Amino acid sequence: MSMSFDQYMRDSVQPMRDELTNLGIQELRTSEDVEAKLPDAKGTVLVVVNSVCGCAAGQCRPGIAEALKHDVTPDHLYTVFAGQDKEATAKAREFFAPYPPSSPSIALLKDGELVHFIERHQIEDRSADQIAADLTGAFDRFCR
Questions:
Q1: For residues 103 and 112, what is the distance between their CA atoms, to the nearest angstrom?
Q2: Tens digits of per-residue pLDDT, 87-105?
Q3: pLDDT tens per residue across span 118-143
Q4: Which of 45, 53, 88, 106 is catalytic?
Q5: 36-52 b/e with 16+ CB inside 10 Å = b?
Q6: Is 143 known to be catalytic?
Q7: Exposed (0-12), middle (13-18) or buried (19+): which is 67, by Cβ within 10 Å?
Q8: Is residue 60 flagged as an active site residue?
Q9: DSSP annotation string for 102-140
């Protein structure tokens, strides 16, 4: 019995995808998906660059889940998966300039403009509660 590498990876990362989609965050799996949603999005947009690393599991996804319980949240919620949906991730990162690629990371855009960005180094050294507090502060500032 043999399983292809691609199938193994799809099966392995599905629970990591589900952690975000179960929160109501829509996956953007292709560059066309990103192009259809981000350029013309009105209001506020949260984009999570998901990944398989430990800081995504231990801090990033739990921090996002906590932040989305806040009474003020972005109008649109999207995610791309670094290392899995490569073209979608590359396209999404075009909206995060001047920041270099970072996985995981969290971007908040308002009317197409990047207004808040949390890089990997700001995730791996903080707790989920600290990330949630950072996000809710940004939500209060930009999503009202």
A1: 21
A2: 999 999 999 999 999 999 9
A3: 999 999 999 999 999 999 999 999 99
A4: 53
A5: ebbeebeebbbbbbbbb
A6: no
A7: buried
A8: no
A9: -SSEEEEEETTEEEEEE-THHHHTS-HHHHHHHHHHHHH
Residues with Cβ within 8 Å of 103's Cβ and at least 6 positions away in sequence, in order, are: 49, 50, 51, 53, 56, 82, 83, 89, 120
Tell me the Ramachandran region of residue 133: left when phi exceeds 0, alpha when psi lies from -120 to 50, beta otherwise: alpha
Catalytic choice (55, 60, 92, 108): 55
When the candidates are 3.40.50.261, 3.40.30.10, 2.40.30.170, 3.90.1150.10, the CATH number that belongs to 1-143 is 3.40.30.10
Sign of CA dihedral 57, 58, 62, 63: negative
Predicted model pTM? 0.95
